[in-house]
Amino acid sequence: MIPDQRDMGLDDAALQAALRRVWSSRGGLLGALASVDHKTVGRRYIVTAFAFLLLGGVLAMLMRWQLAQPEARLMGPDRYNQVFTMHGTNMMFLFAVPVMEAMGGYLVPLMVGTRNIAFPRLNAFSYWVYLFGGLLLWGAFLLDMGPDVGWFAYVPLSGPQYAAGKRADIWAQMITFTEVSALAVAVEIVVTVFKQRAPGMSLDRMPLFVWAMLVTAFIIIVAMPAIVTASTALILDRLVGTHFFNPAEGGDVLLWQHLFWFFGHPEVYIIFVPAVGMVSAIIGTFCRRPVFGYLAMVLALVGIALLSFGLWVHHMFTTGLPRLGESFFTASSMAIAVPSGLQIFCWLATLWGAQPRMAVPMLYVLAFFFTFVLGGMTGVMVASVPLDTQLHDSYFVVAHFHYVLIGGAVFPLLGAIHYWFPKVTGRMMREVTGRWACGMIFLGFNLAFFPMHILGLWGMPRRVYTYQPELPWAGLNLFASVSSVLLAGGFLLFFWNAWRSARHGAPAGDDPWGGPTLEWATSSPPPPWNFTRIPVVESVSPLWDAREALPVAEGLRLDRRELLITSLMDATPEARDSSPQDSIWPLLAAIATSVMLIWSIFTPWAVVWGSIPVAITLIGWFWPRGTPEDES
Amino acid sequence: MGGWQSALAPGGASAEAILGLFWPVVALLGLIWLLVLLVLGAGLLRRAGSQVPRQAYLVIGAATIGTVLVIIGLTTASYLVTRPIAAAAEAPLVVQLRGLQWWWQVTYREEGEAAAFVTANELHLPLGRPVRLELSAEDVIHSFWVPNLAGKQDMIPGRDNVLHLTATTPGTYRAQCAEFCGMQHAHMALLVVVEPAEDFARWRAAQAAPVPAEALAAEGRRVFEQRPCGACHTVRGTTAAGGTGPDLTHLASRGTLAAGLLPMTRGALAAWIADPQTLKPGNNMPLVPLSADELQALTAWLASLR
């Protein structure tokens, strides 16, 4: 290897051979564990998140079974309270947030035309921490130590006095795992988007999905500290007897709710905003025209992000806060309908007369319109203080947030999986099976969840493990339970389709849908170095506008992993920078971190002694290797 | 619609006002939802050029302004509906309601001729008279919700919340805890009996009285006092004066047993005392071993406490 060899003047084959030497991960188990390729990590993230979706779905079916008839005896209250707490915690912290970040972690580097995500070792570390957090939660559940205080863990019920044992500690510490991994990915995405875009991809040429992930990353960075504070204070209350939330000692019960929802409401947008990006990507490609109103779409995303921090109190309308103050939060909560509505209008304009190709991703987008807009309407209703005093904590709210989360985020996500599946695996998902699954999920979802609006108005509270026969709820509950079987069947069909297509699907080629963005410019699946030559971007839809010959940038070295650093606004090339090699240390650091966090459920001294192995693994991680990057 | 625990069948002024806002809002938002789907459907059926027409800017702008107007309207309407609901009335009946895992303690204050007393799991309200409910919690957060009468209000440890309501239709309504409060959140119900003023006054006088003398002679009373029952329960007129469980002085006058779990029958009473942990797992009533004769006597006595 000649030092300082550049990629100029080589033909494709020679160039690829050179890139393979520096970018490929080593084979074998150790090589796989040490990989820092954002695509490897992203695939693991996505598969793990969908595994948790499957497990959370099993819990949902258990709950529907229990509620299908009054005074059912499938589960007692103790088991049921664990099951609904696990369902919520699992779906929010182990499925929805991670899967959206994973989609970003996989796609953003490809869409901005770079060779790896920023801080790839941190990326690998974040995956392992996420995995161990998930295993902690599910392991505890299997040992009958699953949290049973709700995914919101309101004090004092989750405090030392009323939640004996370690169940609530496991919940609180699992949150720490999720915080660490989410913040890590958020930072990576911000830096990747700001400093690693392909030359020419100025901010106004970024794909809308990239904008959505950038905005999401900022929401995570601002929202997570609130839950860090809250869960840490809860652990301290439980472990060392502080009294942050104990009113008898001057603490405050409502403090928890403020902190939790200051994070918890933006959390909804952490899940929803990436889905908005997915819808934009799918609509643009299948209508074969750029999404109408690019600037309005971007401003709407930013507007949603800002507003999402000003409406947490609408979760607390019945706690007895001053009425005038509550009315302010009614206004701010409803105001989020303005940017959301603006996006809907722009999509409708894009679809108007475009005769989109009705493949499965587009069908999911149509399901999204039907379901999400309905959920948005009930969202406006619960934002109204007087209506919310009746609807809050009833099954109406259960219906509402499943409409916005499943309709608003999961439908686009399933569409996005169909859409990007050929890029990730090189194979198409089977279209006919996909249509059946989409139809079953759409129909099953609406039949299962719509009746819950009525149950809520009929007075059925949330989080009840059973109800009595003298209440008129049995019929609709049975209907919802039977319908949920259709929904579950649709999901199983989706999983089966993905499983089967990954092995036997039709080969996809580089660009099966005729997409406009850079990920379709490389092979499927992409090579470890993503792009053999770094593309140069001259418009928001580079592949449509410069299809025959995408201009490329040259000059990167071939004797080490190197990427191009560009300026924040206009993406003009600024520097070449090295990208870290594979390393086993992120895995070891994640193990050490997990041991410390789990140990600290039992004794505060774990923070002292447990930090020693963490320090050792971090030293290993950052040990200078004497490569040029370290010397210059 | 929906019966005795439904927001759609109002029997109180607040619930009526809220429902009066609810249906127009449902109609308006439903219409908007249909409109969006119609535009989507029409757009899909249409065939147009490769570009989005320029007029789209105008339509989107108008739709956005429309959204803003709808939101301003709904916010104003919400505020106008909230204001009278939250307002305090003059000379209300004051009742203190305390949430505990998993039952309700109800305290009526002294008022004129009427003496103060404590009862549980059943709230009686005079028809048409404004009521001021002072809500508190003993242990964890609970939430008081009688959908037929008013919206819910949380009961929070360390805080005192107030709910104003006026019942306008006589009848028996059901309330159920609306904030997850642990194991038996599902079985924490309360009956609310709305009755004419004279019936209410009669009930109130009867509840304030201690156990009548003839009941004190019963064998069941001896069992109640000798066994640990009195450590948690009060029966006014006996030596039982415990404070952690519901007051049982007029137990048999109530419609339900164990916070809405069972109908108030002698059979249910016997079953409950014999095995409270199977009927309501996790609740704070321990199983007190009794002989068959003792159980008989105790049940008969409790069933006589009207």
Computed Rg of chain A: 25 Å
Shape of chain B: elongated
List the total number of helices of chain A: 20
Strand content of chain A: under 5%
Instruction: Calculate Rg of chain B over CA atoms.
Output: 26 Å
CATH superfamily (homologous) name of the largest domain in chain B: Cupredoxins -  blue copper proteins
Portion in strands of chain B: 15-25%
CATH architecture group name of chain A: Up-down Bundle
Largest sheet of chain A: 2 strands, antiparallel
Average pLDDT score of chain A: 94
Question: Care to count the β-strands of chain A?
Answer: 4
Helical stretch tally of chain B: 8
In CATH, what is the class of chain A? Mainly Alpha
Structural class of chain A: mainly alpha
Binned, the helix content of chain A reads 55-70%
The CATH topology annotation of the largest domain in chain B reads as Immunoglobulin-like
Word description of this protein:
- The complex is a heterodimer of chains A (632) and B (306).
- Chain A is built from 20 helices and four strands.
- In chain A, 64% of the residues lie in helices and 2% in strands.
- Chain A starts with 11 loop residues before the first helix and ends with a helix.
- Chain A is mainly alpha-helical and 632 residues long.
- Chain A has one domain (33-631): Cytochrome c oxidase-like, subunit I domain (Cytochrome C Oxidase, Chain A).
- The model of chain A has no long low-confidence stretch (mean pLDDT 94).
- Chain A has helices at residues 12-23, 28-34, 38-67, 77-111, 120-142, 167-195, 208-239, 253-287, 294-307, 323-335, 337-351, 360-383, 385-391, 395-425, 431-457, 474-504, 542-545, 585-599, 605-622, 628-631, and strands at residues 534-535, 552-553, 562-566, 573-578.
- In chain A, the strands form two sheets. A two-stranded antiparallel ribbon of chain A has the order 1-2. In chain A, strands 3-4 form a two-stranded antiparallel sheet.
- With 306 residues, chain B is α+β, with helices and mostly antiparallel strands.
- Chain B folds into two domains: 1-47 and 88-208, Immunoglobulin-like; 213-303, Cupredoxins -  blue copper proteins (Immunoglobulin-like, Sandwich).
- In chain B, 37% of the residues lie in helices and 20% in strands.
- Chain B has eight helices and twelve strands.
- Chain B has a five-stranded mixed β-sheet with strand order 3-2-1-5-8, with no helix packed on it. A three-stranded mixed β-sheet of chain B has the order 4-10-9, with helices on one face. A two-stranded antiparallel ribbon of chain B has the order 6-7.
- In chain B, a hairpin with a 4-residue loop joins strand 11 (256-257) and strand 12 (262-263).
- In chain B, helix 5 (219-226) crosses helix 8.
- Chain B is elongated and about 95 Å long.
- The model of chain B has no long low-confidence stretch (mean pLDDT 94).
- The interface between A and B is large, with 81 and 85 residues.
